[in-house]
Amino acid sequence: MQLNGPRKKKLIVAFHFHIAAPRGWDCDECRKQHLEVKRRCGWVPESQLTESKPVWIRRQVETDCCPKWLINAQSLEWLEAFAAWRGGYLEQGALTAKQIEAFQVLQNELVKETHYAKQTTADNISRAEAGRFR
Ligand SMILES: [Zn+2]
Which residues contact 116 (CB under 8 A, 6 or more apart)? Predict the structure, then answer.
């Protein structure tokens, strides 16, 4: 069984949100800056919400509501366990089936992230090199 649907999406959003750690994306901030309707934070009554549109985007991931609100305790737990597992603090045999499914999703995202980081670095280098010839 593969982790799929909303739970997978939440986990992927949690992963990207964790990496990007965007400033000001906290529901306290949303409230303070009166952005809760625009960002569609989960506590805004449905009657006040405007039409659904992408609110937060990173790479191939987008959410139509406040990402902070979307990320749940389960996603965070999986993120932490994943970090512990990668650090060698969690034995493969101790993992639950659900954790293994979650880790596959996270591993997949991590590979894409690493690939992207390499590409960006390569782009920067070639741009810097090109600059030398101007
Ligand atoms: Zn919010």
Answer: 59
